[in-house]
């Protein structure tokens, strides 16, 4: 018929029969499968680009973490009458002074105790070899040397990923210096114009999505800020606990041990354990097995307090990520990007978790006002998403 509905073609009928032959559950599974594959492909491409651009990405990530710590401090000074420029300069100078002081303290302590540490290490190794020679194992000196070489090769092989990750910021001193300047420059820009940067990012998205992007970003920034503050507090407790135990046992290099524990604690769960093993090693080398066992007990006690008291009560509220997810995030980040990956894994997962939860719950519909253009005009007034969790964020002046 000319004016009637045209008859379906044979190919259309065949496709309809095929569709009817496929069970509904299979059609739903297929629809989910190709969408999941697309998402996985995008994520894989994103990870590949991050790995290729790690010389830029790592300093940027460090600057974001630094800014998450300094923005609240800068706002605190501004609320107490400090000019904005003076508050920013004070925050940056104080941070650089603290980091420089810690590095100088470690170098000074290690240089002072390094000769004795080398001598004691050789003496401890000789005593351990003699113990193995006299043991019921009946090992020879050649066998002990061979096993020692195999152990050292294993350590070198397994640590290659971590060492390469630590050096992934740059393959030379020039790259390291450039990365340091990138961190400082990006931190200054975020402190000065974080609101404008975020407004520009929001403008990239379609108008209908801007409220969700703005609200989720603010919520994620609030989580990141809380994570940094809480992680510093937890790291300080770990450092004080293990350092105090080392001082009571009269171990050398107490300050480097405490600082190493403090820095290592920024890699949740794994970092403090590895740096605590350094204290046990020093106790074994400079003292004896009994003191080393006591030091091990102190390290385990501090870790138990952190895991069962501090993590659930303090870190749990800030991160809202299950400890099992934390462990797998650290392991995956360390495998993909070495030490930087392990360091950034938990804050990235925690921030993404908050942002996705915020969007999924539809909170942005309640937080957003009808005037969506105001979201991208951050310089002209307060943002309509000011009621989001990040009450004191980089997005506000």
Automatic annotation (TrEMBL):
InterPro entries: AI-2E-like (IPR002549)
Keywords: Cell membrane, Membrane, Transmembrane, Transmembrane helix, Transport
CC annotations in GO: plasma membrane
A Pfam family per the record: AI-2E_transport
UniProt-annotated location(s): Cell membrane
Transmembrane segment boundaries: 32-50, 56-73, 85-107, 176-201, 269-302, 314-336
Protein's GO biological process: transmembrane transport
UniProt membrane topology term: Multi-pass membrane protein
Sequence similarity: Belongs to the autoinducer-2 exporter (AI-2E) (TC 2.A.86) family.
Name by which UniProt lists this protein: Putative PurR-regulated permease PerM
Organism of this sequence: Homoserinimonas aerilata
